[in-house]
């Protein structure tokens, strides 16, 4: 189980997150929504120990999350990735196996098979020798999904994986999410869309610096909650 307890973050004295509390059991897919600047990415980075929290912590199966990152696959926003870096599709996916093989050791046959299977699952194995920067946005995202799969993690966190992707890629990703759920993996997905894609999630976490609501879509995506998160003039019809 993933547990976030009293997590708070501030930048130069200004609160970015205020006492976030929730838990996610294994085998559950949770969508995180909220306006720009709500602290969604900040929350994830603080959970992973990538930025400093002023209070609180994230626990995974009873241990501090930041101390067991080998069990976590994290896919950041596309805007945070250097797409000009000269690296092939194969090597991007193979990065997931560094923990298993060591930084300077030859990758095992098992690791190579795992990476191959991951790239095949997202339909990118045939482009394994292509430079990552030569791919379309959807193809690039599929490669990073493959890297997450190749890590064989227990907790998977995705920061806006559907931004700039085509419908085929979106369908592939949601299919993979369902497969991971069936394997009792825990998934946390930051999603900017308030439309039909929310139907795929077991629960929705609505955030704007503090936790507005968490639960089933019908309980969270209400006019009152959305106006509390997005502003009193917000209209779901215009989202």
Assigned CATH class: Alpha Beta
As for the number of domains, it is 1
Mean pLDDT: 90
Shape category: globular
CATH topology-level fold name: Rossmann fold
DSSP strand count: 10
Fraction in beta strands: 25-35%
- H/I helix tally: 8
Could you provide a short overview of the structure?
The protein has eight helices and ten strands. The chain has helices at residues 40-48, 89-94, 98-101, 109-121, 137-150, 167-182, 217-220, 223-230, and strands at 2-11, 14-24, 29-33, 55-60, 63-64, 72-75, 155-159, 186-190, 203-208, 210-215.
Topology readout:
Blueprint: E1 2-11, E2 14-24, E3 29-33, H1 40-48, E4 55-60, E5 63-64, E6 72-75, H2 89-94, H3 98-101, H4 109-121, H5 137-150, E7 155-159, H6 167-182, E8 186-190, E9 203-208, E10 210-215, H7 217-220, H8 223-230
Parallel strand pairs: 3-8, 3-9, 6-7, 7-8
Antiparallel strand pairs: 1-2, 1-4, 4-5, 9-10
Helix pairs in contact: 4-5, 5-6
Structure commentary:
The protein has 239 residues and is of the alpha/beta class. It has a single domain (2-238), classed as 3-Layer(aba) Sandwich (Rossmann fold). It has helices at residues 40-48, 89-94, 98-101, 109-121, 137-150, 167-182, 217-220, 223-230, and strands at 2-11, 14-24, 29-33, 55-60, 63-64, 72-75, 155-159, 186-190, 203-208, 210-215. The strands form 2 sheets. A 6-stranded mixed β-sheet has the order 6-7-8-3-9-10, with helices on both faces. β4 (55-60) and β5 form a beta hairpin. The longest helix has 16 residues, at 167-182. The chain starts with a strand and ends in a 9-residue tail after the last helix. The model has no long low-confidence stretch (mean pLDDT 90).
